[in-house]
Fold Peptidyl-prolyl cis-trans isomerase.
Amino acid sequence: MKKLLLVAAAAATFTACQVKYEKTKSGIQYKISKGKGGEKLKAGEIAKFQLTFSIPDNKDTVIKTTVGGLPGYVMVDTSARAQYTFMELMPLLSVGDSITFNLNVDSLKAKGQIQDYDNVLKKGYTLQGKVKILARFKTEQETMEDHKKEMELSKVAEVKAVEDYLAKNNIKGAQKTKNGAYVLVEVPGDQSLKADSGKQASVMYRGKLMKDGKVFDTNMDTSMHHTDPFKMVVGAGMAIPGWDEGITYFGKGGKGKIFIPSALGYGPQGSGPIPPGANLIFEVEIIDVTTPPPPAAPQGMPGMPGGAPQHGGHGH
């Protein structure tokens, strides 16, 4: 019996390895898993989709995904511009269909779709994509309405994820801001010098990804090669919204943590080492709160207030 099971397992593995990919004109290998059927997407329609890109050559490392976050929206394009991109595959799909496809990194470089190889997209590697078509829209208005709904759902889910994190890690006493960040005040600081809107706060910070605790930026040590305080005018849009809301809970000398849902951070686009849709944690210390210096006067035209003096002034 054990031998039969081993033979069956080997046969299943062989069959899985023999899954046949089809190929587009430009050379993309793909295989489609059909949904409920229906009419295929047409040029000019807008497809709503989930997308994941991974590197099978590097332990299936995921480098981008919309799963669990905001879906993507794209207009179906059947022109030559779509060649050797996942856009070329869209006209093959209907709502509910999923597709797995492979892009050769060397081909992407040769076609100018990436500038150069890097630590992720290495020479000889394959970039594997998986797309599922969630819906189709015929007008921009329909698309915008759906996107707005998805944004609201995403915000609710992100705040819930922050609350779940606090509960799981037994973090008590965090206060919820107006828009859904949470602030844990460990040291309130001088309440006569609060970092209120309009004040300039000098802040030391350490930013971490909530998902795994990885530090992506800090001025509290030399690991990121900058140790100067971050100076911001509170409420002036000089920092992400979660900061603008969270910093106001502290006075000079205050210390604590700000737990920020992605919508109040870097959102679905991410930024540098911060992945799209990432919830964040900031350890902060307010080392000073001052009145900001007045903005520099704009350069005026000659002869106008603030400009160069008029010819024939005093003494001539």
